[in-house]
Amino acid sequence: MCGVIGLWTRREAGTRLVEGLLALQHRGQDSAGVLTSDGTFHLKKGNGTVAHVFNPRNLARLTGNCGIGQVRYPTIGPGSVEDAQPFAINHPFGIAMVHNGNVTNYSDLRRELECKDFRQLTSFSDVEPILNVFAEELDRTDLSAFGPASVFEAVEGVFRRVKGAYSVVALIHKRGLLAFRDPHGLRPLVFARAGNEFAFASESVAFDLLGFRRFSDVKAGEAVFVDSRGVVHREQLRPGKPSPCIFEYVYFARPDSVIDGIGVYDARLRLGERLAFEVARQGIKPDVIVPVPDTARPAASSLASALGIEIREGLIKNRYIARTFIMHGQQRRALSVRQKLNPVRSQIEGRNVLLVDDSIVRGTTSGEIVQLVREAGARKVFLAVTAPPLRFPCVYGIDMMTRGEFVAKNRTVEQIRKVVGADALVYQTYQGLVEAVGANRSTTDRSFCTACFAGCYPTGVSRRYLAQMERERQRWLE
Ligand code: SF4
Is the terminal CB of the chain with fewer CB neighbours within 10 Å at N or C? Predict the structure, then answer.
């Protein structure tokens, strides 16, 4: 999971790009980077959060009225500084690129580019092959007649050759700002315009801060090119069936974002209402509802309203500890739960507590939280989860790459309950998830990627690739 941004404005873009990245910081804390252009490319990138990487001195060097940026969260590997984005290339033009996603034919592409096409990649970042394929495809067009048609032809070449999930923003030197979303639209990408200023971002929340009020989604298989005169060209290059990631609504995206026409906060409220139905159906009668902060808070509030039970902040979050899920390694995760969350004893002691959380991945975090609430004096601790059991790896850029990591792998709900140590465990149903998130769509238009719940991958994924992912991930975790 990463966050990308692009700006084409009449003012200096550097500081605004960094502000936009701050709004996307939840999508990745491993590295941050910005490239601007004033006729020359200016690049600053490094490991760490946005606040860590940028300072007044390096910001002053990021001159120019257009640029792109990225915050990264690596799915495999330790995430070296060499993999930080943006990446740039000089031929056929200066082209800089950022992306969010995961390329599933990365190894084949890398081999093809390095052996057949004599290109040299300098990192293990997925965006490098995308950038090189795009440059190669652009080079095949008639460059003397460069225009939107040549750009779209090159993106069509990327769609043909690059498999997997990728939402891309690219700056083409002195020619314009480009964005495209893979034919399944797996990762989000939004386009905004205010007068003669233009922006792209992973989530609409970045636009609120930058003063863009009107926005639309870049569609699955669509490319949008803002040329140097500020004319917008949009082309639906592939009509493919969109399958945006449903987990964005459950966990990743900020609640104040709107993705593919669905408000994330509203979707979470509906998830809570559907979950209340399951809690009631199982005859669970808590005294108090306690959200596991922060993601589950909207769902917990609607669940509490639906059941007519009071909701209390029984767990307080230390805001200065990084997101548990984003910290790598089992031991670091377990330790960070207690560093991050502390119970409010007065709201818990002697009561039957229903904890509401967004998902259970490995079970480590959930087990620690249940134990924490028990130690604070709860009579009983129930756990309700706004998503169904996660059972299959995500190959589209989310840190859930091996089946072995899932507590739900080969376990029944009762067995998972025992692992996390709760008195009762209630999961959202699969149908509840899809209906809650897609409630404002027709029943035939509720197509999401739900592969991590159901095992059906929109792009098709070979067993060989899954096994390879599993091996690499395992090596990294050890
Ligand atoms: S597998 Fe899950 S996390 Fe990955 S893109 Fe699909 S829904 Fe999202």
Answer: C
For residue range 84-96, list pLDDT tens digits in order. Answer: 999 999 999 999 9
Q: Smallest Cα–Cα separation from 35: which of 171, 230, 219, 153? A: 171
Q: How far apart are CA 422 and CA 371, in angstroms?
A: 8
Q: Is 115 designated active site?
A: no
Give pTM, 2 decimals. Answer: 0.93
Q: Which tokens sit at 466?
A: 């899954």
- 469 C-alpha to center of ligand 1: Å? 15
- The mean predicted confidence, pLDDT, of the chain is 92
Element (H, E) at 111: helix 106-111
At residue 78, the 3 state secondary structure works out as coil
CA distance 344 to 347: 6
List, for residues 328-381, the tens digit of each pLDDT value: 555 565 667 888 899 999 999 999 999 999 999 989 899 999 999 999 999 999
Instruction: Report how far ligand 1's centroid is from the alpha carbon of 115 (Å).
Output: 32
Give the pair of three-digit tokens for residue 433: 């998830």
Type of residue numbered 165: A
SS3 226: strand
434 Cα–ligand 1 center, Å: 13
Query: 161 with 114: CB under 8 angstroms?
Result: no
Residue 77 pLDDT exceeds 60: no
Indicate whether residue 449 lines ligand 1 (CB < 6 A). Answer: yes
